[in-house]
Design a protein that fits this description.
Layout (H helix, E strand, L loop, with lengths): L10 E7 L1 E3 L5 E3 L9 H4 L5 H10 L2 E6 L4 E6 L1 H8 L4 E5 L21 H8 L3 H6 L2 H6 L8 E6 L15 E7 L26 H11 L1 E2 L4 E2 L6 E6 L9 H15 L4 E4 L19
Parallel strand pairs: 7-11, 7-12, 8-11
Antiparallel strand pairs: 1-5, 1-6, 2-3, 4-5, 9-10
């Protein structure tokens, strides 16, 4: 049974689970969002029987997270009470905030002296690259080779963008909004409609061009033109709803499963279209 809440009384929650099942069938207790567990245990999937049991209770399951060992769902007050009575449920709450780690000081790059010559080499990208300190890194040979980068955004019309014709290395792409494997413009999409007549995939392509862009004839160079890229389309332009956070988590875990070592996500949420959201203190 999958119960659809139509009376407007439901709320979206994370349902935290008490355990996972190990590779050899053993029970692994899961507390404090997996604090102290190793990478292999974080990658164990959410128990599918728990998802089915929650659906039987009437939970509208939106997504699940193997890292959090939790299930995102929409519930009414009565269904939430029944969820908390289940022996496999640890509790319900919003996604937990964590403290930022201290960033180690990076070694100093050797100074760049030939700025005039580099200006012609980088073309229109020179100002932004100089301001962010990328040019000295390029002079040391750091152009992204051997690094797999995931970008989570609203879409990427990279097939029509000249900055991606020469060097762009695409590993995988996934549209978490419409449920297919194309992140560039399409017409007749079930959620985003005719993307050929909208800006649905514009922002992601702009961000991607800053990272992966390379046009030798126009002297345009991005931050990491030699890296490999994974593209996840998680943000719908027309609405701002909590389900976009679920897509974001799904996209992040998918990218990790493909070996992403760096993630760029130029997205942020505060006030949702339904009036809910976050206070300034929640955003750190």
């Amino acid at each position: 049974m999958l119960c659809v809440l139509a009376d407007g009384t439901g709320r979206n929650i994370w349902i935290l689970l008490r355990d996972k099942t190990g590779a050899e069938g053993q029970r692994i207790a899961w507390e404090d969002l997996g604090m102290g567990r190793d990478d292999a245990e974080f990658d164990l999937p959410v128990n599918s029987s728990y998802i089915e049991r929650l659906q039987d209770l009437g939970v509208v399951v939106r997504s699940s997270s193997r890292w959090l060992n939790a299930i995102s769902g929409r519930v009414s007050p009565e269904i939430e009470r029944r969820v908390l009575e289940q022996d496999f449920v640890l509790g319900v709450q919003s996604v937990r905030r964590t403290r930022r780690p201290k960033i180690p000081q990076a070694p100093s790059a050797r100074p760049v002296t030939n700025w005039k010559g580099l200006q012609s080499q980088y073309g229109p990208a020179f100002d932004q690259m100089a301001q962010t300190g990328i040019i000295p890194l390029h002079s040391l040979g750091f152009t992204g080779a051997g690094v797999r980068i995931a970008v989570l955004d609203n879409g990427f019309h990279y097939t029509e963008h000249p900055a991606f014709r020469e060097k762009f290395r695409l590993i995988a792409e996934r549209d978490f909004i419409n449920g297919d494997n194309v992140v560039s413009d399409q017409s007749g999409q079930p959620v985003t409609g005719d993307e050929t007549r909208s800006s649905q995939n514009l922002h992601g392509a702009q961000v991607l061009s800053l990272l992966a862009g390379y046009e030798s004839d126009r002297f345009v160079i991005g931050v990491a033109p030699d890296a490999e890229y994974i593209l996840a389309k998680t943000e719908e332009n027309r609405t701002e709803l909590p389900t976009e956070e679920d897509r974001w988590i799904a996209g992040l875990e998918w990218a990790d499963s493909l070996g992403a070592r760096v993630v760029n996500s130029s997205l942020g949420y505060n006030i949702w279209d339904d009036g809910s959201g976050y206070a300034p203190g929640d955003l750190d």
